[in-house]
């Protein structure tokens, strides 16, 4: 069987990484790249630099990765759908829910694979965590808390921190326990002089009753990517920067020092840093996209799931504006 012919549009920071992985991916040939603003990182290599999506389609591609700014996702995605090209679009799916809905309908109606690049799902720490939750290692899950913060990225200009970084946490939270958000309450601030929010603190409730909390910002000098899942048997801490997963077990040994035991909730038990295989998440994401096109498996983040995540992100922004809890209904 001939290799899939792949195209890439958008050659910024993420685009150069997509180009690298596409060149190394079995069963795929990167045959065309495009960016109207040039190739600052030399991602094109020996390929000619094309100007836009029409040139990309004319190259005769089977699949495409869309890494252009969020505001262009709809325009580029719809053109590729019309041409019958399978697409992996970087997150968020689109700049607005209506735009995302049009993309969902365009790909579904043509029977094309439409995937969204919520790469955290492919992080080995979170994949191992999900499997352990499903195996009952935590028993009942009480809460999922995430922290995602770091310095301001000058490359992000068309959306705020909720739709850019926050959508990672919305998606991974609902995915970990396979339950959608039913409500969110959020507060945001804008400190960097830009039109969009650069910090959000949010709490939510999932359909299964699990509480969530999320701290996301572009205002911290330290970079942090942490997910904490607390349940009746202890807590898992996943660090997706290092792909480390640690289990803090509820203890079974009685604390005899009364002055200390009075300040404990559950007792402290063993702390175990778990040994897990660590593959590059972007490579695993691309393999899932390729395999979905070939009909071998379907582990991609679908455009429908990407749209559900965007709905929650917009509810967070609305809650911050109204200072009220926003309710979400099933899509």
TrEMBL record:
It comes from the Bacteria. The keyword NAD applies. Residues 127-236 form the GFO/IDH/MocA-like oxidoreductase domain. SUPFAM superfamilies: Glyceraldehyde-3-phosphate dehydrogenase-like, C-terminal domain, NAD(P)-binding Rossmann-fold domains. InterPro entries: Gfo/Idh/MocA-like_OxRdtase_N, Gfo/Idh/MocA_Oxidoreductases, GFO_IDH_MocA-like_dom, NAD(P)-bd_dom_sf. Residues 5-118 form the Gfo/Idh/MocA-like oxidoreductase N-terminal domain. Pfam families: GFO_IDH_MocA (PF01408), GFO_IDH_MocA_C3 (PF22725). Coiled coil: none annotated. Keywords: NAD. GO terms for molecular function: nucleotide binding. This is Dehydrogenase. It comes from Tersicoccus phoenicis. The lineage of its organism: Bacteria, Bacillati, Actinomycetota, Actinomycetes, Micrococcales.
